Structure formats: C-alpha cells, structure tokens
Amino acid sequence: MAVESIQNIFRVPELKRRLLYTLALLAVYRVGAHIPTPGINGEALAEFIARTQGTIFGFFDMFSGGALGQMTIFALGIMPYISSSIILDLLSVVFPTLAKLKKEGEQGRKKLNQYARYGTVVLSVVQALGISIGLEKMVSPGGVPVVPFPGWSFRLLTILTLTTGTVFIMWLGEQITERGIGNGISLIIFAGIVTGLPRAVGNTLSLIRTGEMAPLLMLVLLAMMVVVVGAIVVMESGHRKIPIQSAKRVVGRRIYGGQSTYLPLKINTSGVIPPIFASSIIAFPATITQFVDHPWISFISNSLAPGGLLYTILTVVLIFFFAYFYTAIIFNPDDVADNLKKSGGFVPGIRPGKNTSQFVDRTLSRLTFTGAIYLSVIVILPTYLIQYMKVPFYFGGTALLIVVGVAMDTMQQVESHLVMRNYEGFLKRGRLRGRRG
C-alpha cells in the first residue's frame, strides 16, 4: 500500500515537480552547510566546540545541522528568522498597528513577513558580530587560537558572510514553501536535525558489536521510540472540537443558516516554542562558563546539568510558563467570540459575547495544561535515557517534536495533492490530519 502511494506521487506531474524542486533546494542547503567561513582555523575550532555540549552552542548547532560547530557560511542557520517572527508576535500585543496587520488577511501577512525579513537581517548582523568577537577569544585546549588574524577585517568579513548565508537560507525556505512541497523553513530545520541520524545509527551498531550495549536494551529503546513518536502524532493532531451553531435567518420565503460546525482548539497550541525557549535559557549558564571562570557560575551550571532534579523542575516550570504565555499571544478568545457574534454563530448553551469568550478561554486553558504536561514528558524523557541508561539516544525531545511535526505537515500536503487528483493517499481509511487546525 505504501509502495503504491509513493508510486502515485510520481504519476502526478505537478507533485513530482514540487517534490524534486524541494529536494534540490535542500541539497543546496546541505552543500552550503559544508563551506567554511574564511579566516578560521578549523582544527582549533573543532577542539573547542567539542567542549560545548549542553551549552547554547551545542543546542543551536543541532538546528543548523552542524554548520555552527564547523563555522560554515550557514552557521547562523534559520534561527534569526524564527527569532524575528517570534519577536513580531510578541510586539503585536504591544503595538496596535501590528495587531491590525494580523487581521488584514493576505496583505497584512505579506507586510508582516517583510518586517520579519528586515528583523532577520538586523539579528543576523548582531549575532554575527558577537560570534566573530567570541571566535577571536577562543583558544583550543592545545593553545592554538581559532582566529589566526583577528581584527575588524575579520569581523566585517564574518558579518557579511554569516548574514548573507542566513538571508540565502531564508530565501530557500520561502522558495520551497511557494514552489515546493511543505513548509520551507520547517523543512530546512528538519534537514539539519536528521543529518546526524546515520552517524548516530552507526555509533549504536558499533556499541552493539563491541558488547557495550545489549541487543535487548536496543529493542526496548526502539519500542519506546515508537511509543513516543506515536504519542507525538496523536497529541499534535489532537483537537477539542467546540460545536458552533449558526442562527437561522428568514429572507423572504427562504430560511438561511441553522448549520452546525465546530471550532477546533489544538491540544498543543504553542507548538515547539516552549521547549526551545526553556532549553535556551537553561543552557545559558553552561555557555557563560566557557568564557567566565567564576565559582558561582560554575556551581549554577553544574546544578543545571541534564538529569538533575533542579534541571527537571526548572525545565517543566519554563515549559508551562511559555506554553501559557505564547498561547495567550497567538490566540485571543475575545476576538473569537466577537467574530462568532458578528457572523451569527454561537456555542449551544452559551450566551454570545463575554460568556462565549470565558468558555473558550477556560477550555483553552485546560488544553494548554494538558499540552504543557505532554511537552514536559517528551523533553525530559530522552534526558533520563541518556543520563541513567547510558544509551546514545540521538534525538532530544525538542528535535523529536520538530522532526515528527514537520513530517506530519509534509505528508498532509502530499496527501492533499494525491486526493485532489483522485489518487489514493498514504492512508486507506480517513485522511491524515496535520498539526494546523
């Protein structure tokens, strides 16, 4: 069945073209991720980066597919664009002009995307300057400087190189979204994360051959991974459907309206943002210790080591905080209630207006609580597997969420193309539901 569905993809000319176009641009991205930035001693940098596991460097290196660790032209990855988009979401709460643009449909979305591009350039310049200054201070354990010839010439060249690389990645993502299949930005992150999968599988097989890992333990881990992936699929596609009834209107001798529909509320409305923010904040002290040798900072960094009680508590607290915070930013129950009232819709048994807003807000708060528990378990579980079972668990919780979520969205788009052209999709019964409601 799966083989036939894959064959159907290549029977649809447009879908085939979009898929090959997407793969070609992703290949361009992976080639660029191996072109080094000029003026850097690669061997000295590799020795220094080897000590940064558990820091912000190691965290963002995962999203760049190893480009940051090798300091290639794509070292900044797509994170400046993501950060710029998140900042715009936050500012829309403060500035009414941005909030108005979000409600203006396609034209407003284009303007916000343009602002996000400008913000990406600004953030890339600032981050590239910080990285260039940090590189000049880095020295390998053998005493070899990472930057043989420091100075403003190196800094300006690094700023130009890394900023151009990020802008080019952003352009690749937009081209994939427009002319390819799937969300381009998400697929670029996906490609960066899964790049290290073959190496991780090879290391695991080597451990089994040498007897350092029992085959039974590996089978248990595979079973757990299947269960975790299944849980992510269920939770990311899960919705709470609030029934909506439209009021009947009599026009002449005809009766309009009276139809029933529903308002889908996602279980995990905030997506992968809470784990990313929580992991970045917790990794910050470990990053500071790479440059500042102070007893208090070292004590805080050691206390927040993955697998510890303080690390677990703080991770869960931050995930809950950002889950509620980001959900409150991107979803406004008052706007939902007003739109329903203007269109003549209502929730059965609930009065339109303020009561509807309170009902939606109460339902969303319960869903967010459930979603935050789910995110906490997914993020914490791999940490304890690594810490106490001594296994090379490649995907961290955040990476696993991204990989599964992007795969679901991409399969949903492929499924839509096949069904639209009367071809059978990946699922014989029903349709694959994506993460977006």
Sum this structure up briefly:
The protein has 437 residues and is mainly alpha-helical.
- Helix and strand succession? HHHHHHHHHHHHEEEEHHHHEHH
The portion of residues assigned to helices is 55-70%
How large is the share of residues in beta strands?
Answer: 5-15%
Mean pLDDT across residues: 78
Q: What attributes does this structure have?
A:
68% helix; 437 residues; globular; mainly alpha; 5 strands; single chain
What would your notes on this structure say?
The protein is mainly alpha-helical and 437 residues long. It has 18 helices and five strands. The strands form two sheets. Strands 4-1-5 form a three-stranded antiparallel β-sheet. The protein has a two-stranded antiparallel ribbon with strand order 2-3. α15 (309-330) runs antiparallel to α17 (354-389) and α17 (354-389) packs across α18 (397-420). The chain is globular. The mean pLDDT is 78.
List the helices and strands and how they pair.
Layout: H1 2-9, H2 13-32, H3 42-49, H4 56-63, H5 67-70, H6 79-94, H7 96-102, H8 105-137, H9 152-179, H10 184-194, H11 197-210, H12 215-237, E1 239-246, E2 249-251, E3 254-256, E4 260-266, H13 273-288, H14 295-303, H15 309-330, H16 333-342, E5 345-346, H17 354-389, H18 397-420
Antiparallel strand pairs: 1-4, 1-5, 2-3
Helix pairs in contact: 2-9, 2-10, 6-7, 6-8, 7-8, 8-9, 9-10, 10-18, 12-18, 13-14, 13-15, 15-17, 16-17, 17-18
